C-alpha cells in the first residue's frame, strides 16, 4: 500500500511539473535549467535593450539637432521667407519710385520710329518721295510723291499740267506704329484712284483692321502710288472744281464712313442699292 501511494505521488508530481511550467520554474530556482532559462531571458532583455535603446537615444539626439539646426524644409521655408522679405522690400522700394506714364512711353516709341524712318527716306536713291515736317511737328508730315507709273494716264496729266508731285499729309497717332496713320491728299485735286471726298484714301492697310506695325511710310506711299494707277486716278481739270481745295474735316468724315462700310461688306464694292 505504501508502495502504491508513493507511485501515485510520483505520478502526480510528474504530471504537475510537466503541466505547469511556471510551477516548475518556481520550484527549481536553483537548478541548472532555471539558470539557463534565466540566462537566456537576461540575454534577451539585454539584447532588447541594446536594440531599442539606441534609436531612442538617436531620436533624442536628432530632436535636439533639429531644434538646434533647421531641417531642409524649414531651412528652405526660412530662405523663401527671407527672399520674400527681400523681394517685398524691393517691391516697396520700386513702388515708391515714380512709374513712367504709358503716354510718355508711347511718345518715345513713336519718336524713335519716325526719326528712323526720316533717315531712311533721306537715303532713297530714286527720289521717290521727300518729306517736310508740318510746322516743325515730328508727328505730322507733308509728303511729296514725285513718281507714279510712267505709262499711266496720271503721269501724263502730271506732265501736261506741270505738276511736279502729289502732296499728301500724314498724321501719326499717339500709339503709332501700332495704329495706322491718317493720310489724305492735299494737292492736286484728284479724281478716282481710290481718292474720295476731302482727299481721303480708300486703302485697307490704312485701317486698324488692315494695318501692321511692320509697314513703313515708304511702303505705304509705294502702295498708294500703285493704287492711284490701278484705280485710274486722274488730275481734275474741270473749271471751278479743280481749284477747290481738299478739306481735312471732310476727309476724316469720309474715311470714317468708308471704314464702316468696308467693315460691313468687306473690301469689295458694296451693292448699288446701298449707295
Features:
4-stranded antiparallel sheet; 8 helices; alpha+beta; 6 strands; Ubiquitin Conjugating Enzyme
Topology:
Layout: H1 2-19, H2 21-27, H3 32-68, H4 72-96, H5 102-122, E1 129-134, E2 137-145, H6 153-160, E3 166-171, E4 182-187, E5 190-191, H7 217-230, E6 234-235, H8 248-265
Antiparallel strand pairs: 1-2, 2-3, 3-4, 5-6
- Give the termini distance in whole angstroms: 148 Å
Question: Count of helical segments?
Answer: 8
Spatial order of strands in the largest sheet: 1-2-3-4
Query: CATH class of one domain, anyone?
Result: Alpha Beta
The low-confidence parts are 10-67, 89-99, 269-275
CATH architecture of one domain: Roll
Indicate the overall shape. Answer: globular
Assembly context of the chains:
single chain
Mean pLDDT across residues: 75
Strand content: 5-15%
Question: What is the CATH homologous superfamily assignment of one domain?
Answer: Ubiquitin Conjugating Enzyme
Largest β sheet strand count, sense and barrel closure: 4 strands, antiparallel
DSSP E strands, number: 6
* Cα radius of gyration in angstroms: 51 Å
Helix-strand category: alpha+beta
How would you spell out the order of helices and strands?
HHHHHEEHEEEHEH
Helix content: 40-55%
Amino acid at each position: 500500500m505504501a508502495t502504491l501511494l508513493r507511485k501515485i505521488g510520483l505520478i502526480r508530481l510528474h504530471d504537475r511539473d510537466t503541466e505547469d511550467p511556471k510551477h516548475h520554474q518556481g520550484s527549481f530556482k536553483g537548478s541548472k535549467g532555471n539558470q539557463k532559462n534565466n540566462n537566456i531571458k537576461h540575454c534577451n532583455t539585454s539584447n532588447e535593450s541594446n536594440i531599442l535603446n539606441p534609436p531612442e537615444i538617436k531620436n533624442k539626439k536628432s530632436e535636439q539637432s533639429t531644434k538646434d539646426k533647421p531641417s531642409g524644409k524649414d531651412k528652405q521655408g526660412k530662405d523663401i521667407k527671407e527672399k520674400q522679405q527681400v523681394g517685398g522690400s524691393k517691391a516697396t522700394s520700386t513702388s515708391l519710385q515714380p512709374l513712367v506714364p504709358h503716354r510718355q512711353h508711347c511718345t518715345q516709341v513713336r519718336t524713335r520710329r519716325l526719326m528712323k524712318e526720316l533717315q531712311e527716306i533721306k537715303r532713297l536713291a530714286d527720289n521717290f518721295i521727300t518729306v517736310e515736317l508740318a510746322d516743325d511737328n515730328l508727328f505730322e508730315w507733308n509728303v511729296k510723291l514725285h513718281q507714279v507709273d510712267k505709262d499711266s494716264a496720271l503721269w501724263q496729266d502730271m506732265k501736261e499740267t506741270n505738276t511736279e508731285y502729289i502732296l499728301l499729309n500724314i498724321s501719326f497717332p499717339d500709339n503709332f506704329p501700332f495704329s495706322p496713320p491718317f493720310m489724305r491728299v492735299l494737292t492736286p485735286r484728284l479724281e478716282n484712284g481710290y481718292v474720295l471726298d476731302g482727299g481721303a484714301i480708300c486703302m485697307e492697310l490704312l485701317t486698324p483692321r488692315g494695318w501692321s506695325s511692320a509697314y513703313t511710310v515708304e511702303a505705304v506711299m509705294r502702295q498708294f502710288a500703285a493704287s492711284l494707277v490701278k484705280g485710274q486716278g486722274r488730275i481734275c481739270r474741270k473749271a471751278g472744281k479743280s481749284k477747290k481745295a481738299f478739306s481735312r474735316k471732310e476727309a476724316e468724315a469720309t474715311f470714317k464712313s468708308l471704314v464702316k462700310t468696308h467693315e460691313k461688306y468687306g473690301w469689295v464694292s458694296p451693292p448699288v442699292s446701298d449707295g
